[in-house]
Amino acid sequence: MGLTLYPAVDIRDGRAVRLTRGRADAVTEYADPVEAALGFAAAGAEWLHVVDLDAAFTGEPRNRHLVGRIVAETGRRVQASGGVRTLDDIRTALDLGASRVVVGTMALTDPAFVPAALEVAGDRLAVGLDAEDGRLRARGWTEDAGDLMGTLARLTELGVARVVVTDIATDGMLSGPNLELLRAVADATTAAVTASGGVASVADLVALAGLHPRVDAAIVGRALYTGDVDLAEALAAVAAVAP
Q1: What are the two backbone dihedrals, phi and then psi, of residue 167, each rounded to the nearest 5 degrees?
Q2: CA gap 103, 56 in Å, rounded
Q3: Among the options 10, 54, 167, 171, which is catalytic?
Q4: CB of 90 within 8 A of CB of 125?
Q5: Parallel, antiparallel, or unpaired: how do β-strands 143-147 and 77-81 relate?
Q6: What is the mean pLDDT of residues 81-106?
Q7: Average pLDDT over residues 89-100
Q8: What percent of the chain has pLDDT over 90?
Q9: Mean pLDDT of 214-229
Q10: pLDDT at residue 45 above 90?
Q11: Active site residue 123
Q12: Residue 130 falls in the annotated catalytic set
């Protein structure tokens, strides 16, 4: 199937924004999120990664309704993320039309949550693993959440179908993805791996496309908004890489 690209639509106070290394005080505002999503869809994206940053930082899901608008107006599959901390949050995102829901903090801090979430979402559940120096971070990257590889082993045993791996050091930095980390994670699990953080060029995406059979998707954020990556060009480039 090759590498699937997920343009990111990170939403704060109803606007599409990008953060630097996940910092709430390092925000660049770009566009109306629905317009941004429509632009990505027009360029050929099949999936969109939609993040409610307000829910992630404050626990208040102010922007979740925009998932429904983006699904309805683009006709694309949406991966919903950001502040998903209850089973009802998962159900709401699915009811709004999300094709997949990413759970972060609760999957890392409550051992009972993932089995319950799998009952609700099955293979439409993904777990976000935001890592720095082999340690996981939760609650908007403000708290330590344990060992990356130990947690990955537990999630794999539970049958989680997909993990979304973010290298905190590279997120929003346009410095290139952490290929070594992604390869190590892919080697250690049977889950599909989505790469997140650091993509700065089409060449970065080509490198990800050829990295590992289980690294089959990549989230692209700031580089699309700054123009460092042209989405149509990127889609064509990764399609040419043999999986």
Answers
A1: -90, 110
A2: 10
A3: 10
A4: yes
A5: unpaired
A6: 94
A7: 96
A8: 65
A9: 92
A10: yes
A11: no
A12: yes
Q: Which two tokens stand for residue 168?
A: 């905190």
Residues 111-166: tens digit of each pLDDT: 899 999 999 999 999 999 999 888 898 776 667 668 999 999 999 999 999 999 99
Q: What is the pTM of this model?
A: 0.90
Task: Please check whether residue 30 is in contact with residue 241, taking contact to mean a CB–CB distance below 8 angstroms.
Answer: no
Q: Which of 54, 130, 171, 216 is catalytic?
A: 130
Dist CA 30 CA 44 (whole Å): 20
Closest CA to 221 of 165, 163, 173: 173
Over the stretch 154-184, which tens digit does the pLDDT of each residue have?
A: 999 999 999 999 988 766 556 789 999 999 9
**Structure token pair of residue 9:** 């639509």
Do the strands 4-12 and 15-19 form a parallel or antiparallel pair, or are they unpaired?
A: antiparallel
**Do the beta carbons of residue 126 and residue 160 sit within 8 Å?**
yes
Contact 3, 218 (CB under 8 A): yes
Query: Based on C-alpha coordinates, what's the Rg of the chain?
Result: 16
**Could you tell me the domains of the chain?**
4-239 (3.20.20.70)
